[in-house]
Write a sequence for this structure.
């Protein structure tokens, strides 16, 4: 993986869940990626570093209290399990071994106490990680697109350089009007309002279900009061929990 902080040609090998590391590995690896055609000079490292930092940033996630189970001293727990103990909420930060039980949440080597707000407890996690097993062939461009879409990022080529644009609030860079658009070059496609989905069914591999499929449904309740249900299905590649910021 490239040394993202130096923007150079140095490479280190390590495990990473950061989507940028995975994309760069796919682009440059000579065995299973595009390394016969591309190298690090084909990556916009400044844009990649912004994307990398965006994914690494710790952000709060608000989890319904019913997602935590009541702690039992007879059970063993796994990393990222949530429990409630003496009316307080905890996250397991170290998986118990097969023989370990009765490690109370007050043991800070194994548990981290979480704050609460209203009907939720609050955890911190990296904004995006990509957990995906590549067990079939993908076109390199399709794989890049799958990773970026999961992170609300657009990957695009500037000539022979892969760059990235993060979909987030920012300062406008360009204004287009009739004064700076070449006559006859502009085309606009408008989707009829009633053709826009009012329900999204998103499927992902849930870690708590042994990475089996789980579907979460997001509904535009206001529109469904007056319209027929118009549902769209999406696959969220690389996501393993539903608490995504």
């Amino acid at each position: 993986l490239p040394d993202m902080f130096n923007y150079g040609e140095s490479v280190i090998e390590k495990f990473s869940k950061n989507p940028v590391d995975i994309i760069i590995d796919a682009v440059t690896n000579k065995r299973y990626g595009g390394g016969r055609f591309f190298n690090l000079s084909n990556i916009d490292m400044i844009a990649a570093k912004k994307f990398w930092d965006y994914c690494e940033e710790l952000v709060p996630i608000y989890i319904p209290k019913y997602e935590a189970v009541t702690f039992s001293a007879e059970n063993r727990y796994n990393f990222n399990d949530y429990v409630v103990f003496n009316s307080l909420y905890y996250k397991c930060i170290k998986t118990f071994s097969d023989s370990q039980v009765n490690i109370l949440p007050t043991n800070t080597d194994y548990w981290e106490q979480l704050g609460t707000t209203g009907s939720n407890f609050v955890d911190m996690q990296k904004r995006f990680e990509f957990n995906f097993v590549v067990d079939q062939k993908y076109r390199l461009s399709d794989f890049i697109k799958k990773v970026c879409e999961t992170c609300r990022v657009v990957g695009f080529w500037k000539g022979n350089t892969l760059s990235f644009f993060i979909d987030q609030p920012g300062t406008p860079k360009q204004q287009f009007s009739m004064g700076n658009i070449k006559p006859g070059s502009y085309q606009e496609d408008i989707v009829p309002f009633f053709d826009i989905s009012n329900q999204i069914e998103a499927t992902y591999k849930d870690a708590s279900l042994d990475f089996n499929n789980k579907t979460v449904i997001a509904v535009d309740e206001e529109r469904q009061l007056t319209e027929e249900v118009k549902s769209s299905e999406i696959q969220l590649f690389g996501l393993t929990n539903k608490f995504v910021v």
The radius of gyration is 22 Å.
